[in-house]
Each structure stands twice: as structure tokens, then as C-alpha cells.
Design goal:
The protein is mainly α. Helix content is about 85%, strand content about 0%. The protein is built from 20 helices and no strands. The relative contact order is 0.12.
Length: about 500
């Protein structure tokens, strides 16, 4: 491998022009994805606003249902689909078009089977919540919302893999425009279904389903029109199913890594209900979680895009360009974290006023806003680091770190401070801070100290050429053995990488 191919050698630092070029490449992808995430956030806010117009019982039931469906459904589907990131990005980098399209089909099939038990849970939401002691009137509304949202599970079996499929090919602007068009019709849909037709809670749920369906139709139309939809079905069902096992080995830990963090925020809401003044605590927690969700849109976009960039470069056999993409993304994440600390401190007294007029809730939110800002200082590099790990096909590390950080560090600290030492509401968020710091330190250590980028390029070649692709593009046995031998000689990995490539 020449320096020209790799961008720069292992003994030289990247030049300012190379860093600037990578910054442009990364943010050209990340900005449209950030805009798309913000539009999805706006769609959720619109649904809550229409639920609020129906009444307090409908709002409470809808909020309960949204929380339940997020935990049991959407987080799982997003997490599983993220397992597609290393395969598609590395396949695109190595120009393995068969693997790219087959992996999309395999993930759609995985999600299709995953929504079956999720649907059963959603149908029984009301019974589950009543069993847990929730108010029957509120759970009735929540159950109705969940049942009418079930078709959205089928929509997401296409929507989530398509997003990863396109992002791995650096196609982000069309996704933004498709989302914009779909969300533009979300308000009129809600108005017609809820206010004109008087469908109430079912109307709000149906509007969300139709909006997501519109996104899928627009994205499929773009993929078809652009010629990217080259489904290789010659291998038959056996060819599609043949690579499901290896793909699941990436999808399951990716899912756990995302869900473990996602679920922890719901646990905080439950814990807030056990504090001295639960009404104030839960209301303040809702505002703070909405705030963190808003701030999360940028690092989430950056994580997805750096995963694609790292995977593309590793798949193309350019380990040092992959490393450069990772370092630039981490630097950008650190800057975003500093910005979040700055604005949360400056606006801490005013921010809660956008959500409530209750002065006690405002005071409670203001007292915790700086803590949330510092949490984001750790969360931005941590989220970006998880994206880098997915790009290198190591999501299991992210899952282990999230499990240890949030449940063996964050939870004991939160419970100990809030209830044991009687710190109260802020103790819960110090627990989050401890979890985020532990998570960030662990993931940065893995990326900055423990990652052998040349070895990752060798593994990427195996992933995209052999292990995941036996059904569609058989590899010569001697070449496969050559890859295995090279992986076992990491002391001189660069020499072997040059020989293989």
C-alpha cells in the first residue's frame, strides 16, 4: 500500500489540508442527517401537541404509550438496524455490491421477525400497565395508541435499514429531503384525522404511521430511480438466509449498546417518581429528557456518519484514512460538547420557561441544567466513539461499556446520592454524569490506545470478502487462507496488508 493510497503513512501526522478535507467530507454527510433527526424530533413534538389538545387524559395516555413503544419497539429496531452499518459501509468501500444489497435484504428479514413479539407486547400494553398498577383510564388511552401504532412496526422494518443502507454510501441529502416532505404533511394529517374527522387518539397514531410510510415510499422511490436498488436474488432464499447468522452477531450487540443507554433514561423517570415531591420531579425530568434528546440529534448524526466513513475507508484498505476520520469526528464531538456546556450554563434560568409556567419546576430544572451540559461534554465523544466501534465491526465492546457504565456505575451512584445520601433530584443526574464519564473514558481508551488500524483493515477485508459473503461471491480458498495467515501475524501487519491488497 502506498502513501498515496492510504492518504498518509503510519509515521506521519496528517497535514492540515487532509484534516480539512476530512472535516468537509464528514460534515457534508452529518449536517443533512442532523437536519433529518431534527425533523423526526419535530414530528414527535407535533404528535404530543395534538394529544395535548385532546385533553390531559389523552396526553397522559399518549405519553405513556410513546414511552412504552420507544422502549420495547423503536429502540430495538433502530439498534438492530445499526448492526448493518459495518457490513454495508465496508462492502461499499470494497465495492462489493452483492454484499451491500444482500445485507439490506437480510436485515429487513431480521426486523420482520423481530416485530412479531414486539406486536404482541403492544397489543397487551393496557393489561401490562394495569398489572403494574397504572391508572385504568390512562392505560386505556395508551393501549389504544399502541394498537393503532402497530402498522408503524412494519414500516420501520424498511425505514431503518434503508437509512443505514443509504448513509453507508454517503447518500444523506436525499434522506433529508424525503423526511422534510413527509414531515410537512404531518401537521395537515393530524389536523384532518384528529380535528376534522374526530378520530382522537387513534388519529394521532395513524398520522404518525402515515408520515413514516410516506418517508419509506419517498426513499424507496429515490433508491429505485437512482439505480442503487440492485437486489441480487439469484442466490435464492438460501443465499439471503446464509449470512443472517454473522449479521446477527453484529446486530444484537449494536442493539444492546443503543438500548441499554436509551432505557436508562426511562429508569431515571421512574426513580424520579419516588422522590419527596414526585410531581415536580417527574415534570422536571420530562423537560430535561426532552432537552437531552434535542442535543443528542447532532452526536447521533455524527456517530452514524463516522461509522460509514470509517467502514468505507477500512473496506477500501485505507486504515490511516479511517483513523483520520475517527480522530476528526472525535475532535468535532469534543467541540460540540463544549458548546452544550456553554449554552446550558448561560440559559439555565430561562430554558424551562419554554416548557412550563410552574416556578418550582423552573427552579428544579435550572439547578440541574449545568450538570446536563457536562454530561453532554462526555456524551458527545462517547456517542461518536460508539459509531467508530460500529464502523470497525466491534459493537460488542460498546454494549459491554454501556452495560458497565450505566448499570454498574450510573445506577448505584444515582440511587445512592438521591436516596441514600438524600441529595434528592440532582443526585439522579450526578448518576448520569458518572455513567457518561465512565463510558467516555472506556470507549476513548479502546479507540485511542487499543485499536490497531492496520489489523482492522485486514478484518474488514475478511468481513466484506469472505465471512459475510459466502453465498453471493465465493472466495478462492487459498486467498481466504492468506487472509487468515495475515491476521495471525499482526506484528508485521502492514507488510501483510500490502501483500494482500
Amino acid at each position: 500500500m502506498t502513501d498515496k493510497d492510504s492518504g498518509f503513512s503510519s509515521h506521519k501526522l496528517p497535514s492540515p489540508s487532509q484534516v480539512l478535507e476530512e472535516l468537509k467530507e464528514l460534515w457534508a454527510m452529518a449536517l443533512p442527517i442532523t437536519a433529518m433527526n431534527c425533523l423526526v424530533y419535530v414530528r414527535a413534538v407535533v404528535s404530543v401537541l395534538f394529544l395535548g389538545r385532546l385533553g390531559s387524559r389523552e396526553l397522559a395516555g399518549g405519553a405513556l404509550s410513546i414511552g412504552f413503544t420507544n422502549i420495547t419497539g423503536y429502540s430495538v429496531l433502530v439498534g438492530l438496524a445499526s448492526g448493518l452499518e459495518p457490513v454495508c459501509s465496508q462492502a461499499y468501500g470494497s465495492k462489493n455490491w452483492d454484499l451491500l444489497s444482500l445485507s439490506l435484504q437480510r436485515m429487513i428479514m431480521i426486523l420482520f421477525f423481530a416485530i412479531i413479539p414486539i406486536s404482541v407486547l403492544w397489543v397487551n400494553l393496557e393489561n401490562i400497565m394495569v398489572f403494574l398498577g397504572q391508572d385504568k383510564n390512562i392505560t386505556a388511552m395508551a393501549g389504544t395508541y399502541a394498537i393503532y401504532s402497530i402498522p408503524d412496526l412494519l414500516t420501520n422494518t424498511l425505514l431503518q435499514p434503508l437509512r443505514v443502507f443509504l448513509r453507508s454510501q454517503r447518500v444523506t441529502k436525499p434522506m433529508m429531503w424525503c423526511t422534510l416532505v413527509a414531515v410537512m404533511f404531518h401537521i395537515p394529517l393530524n389536523y384532518v384525522l384528529v380535528m376534522v374527522m374526530g378520530l382522537g387518539v387513534p388519529g394521532v397514531a395513524m398520522a404518525s404511521v402515515v408520515t413514516n410510510l410516506n418517508m419509506v415510499v419517498l426513499m424507496v422511490g429515490f433508491v429505485w430511480a437512482s439505480g442503487r436498488w440492485e437486489m441480487r436474488l439469484a442466490a435464492g432464499i438460501g443465499g439471503v438466509c446464509g449470512g443472517v447468522g454473522p449479521l446477527l452477531k453484529l446486530a444484537v450487540p449494536s442493539c444492546l449498546g443503543i438500548c441499554l443507554e436509551w432505557w436508562w433514561y426511562e429508569i431515571v423517570t421512574v426513580l424520579a417518581g419516588y422522590l419527596a415531591n414526585p410531581t415536580l420531579a417527574v415534570a422536571a425530568t420530562g423537560i430535561l429528557i426532552q432537552t437531552t434528546s434535542m442535543m443528542y440529534t447532532v452526536p447521533m448524526a455524527l456517530a452514524g456518519c463516522v461509522s460509514a466513513r470509517v467502514g468505507n475507508e477500512l473496506g477500501a484498505g485505507k486504515p490511516y484514512k479511517a483513523k483520520l476520520a475517527a480522530m476528526v469526528a472525535l475532535g468535532s464531538a469534543l467541540v460540540m460538547g463544549i458548546l452544550n456546556v456553554t449554552w446550558t450554563v448561560i440559559l439555565r434560568e430561562r430554558w424551562a420557561g419554554l416548557f412550563t409556567k410552574d416556578e418550582l419546576v423552573k427552579v428544579l430544572v435550572a439547578s440541574v441544567m449545568p450538570i446536563i451540559g457536562v454530561c453532554e461534554l462526555a456524551n458527545c465523544p462517547q456517542t461518536t466513539g460508539c459509531g467508530i466501534l460500529r464502523g470497525t465491526a466491534r459493537p460488542v465492546i460498546g454494549a459491554r461499556v454501556n452495560l458497565g457504565s450505566f448499570y454498574f456505575v450510573g445506577t448505584p451512584v444515582a440511587v445512592g446520592l438521591a436516596f441514600g445520601l438524600k441529595v434528592g433530584f440532582s443526585g439522579l443526574w450526578y448518576g448520569l454524569l458518572s455513567a457518561q464519564v465512565a463510558c467516555a473514558v472506556s470507549i476513548l481508551y479502546v479507540i485511542l490506545v487499543r485499536t490497531d488500524w492496520e489489523a482492522e483493515a485486514l478484518k474488514a477485508m475478511k468481513l466484506s470478502s469472505c465471512e459475510m459473503n459466502a453465498a453471493c461471491n465465493p472466495v478462492n480458498e487459498k486467498e481466504y487462507e492468506k487472509v487468515e495467515e495475515s491476521e495471525g501475524l499482526l506484528v508485521n501487519a502492514k507488510v501483510h496488508l500490502d501483500n494482500v491488497l
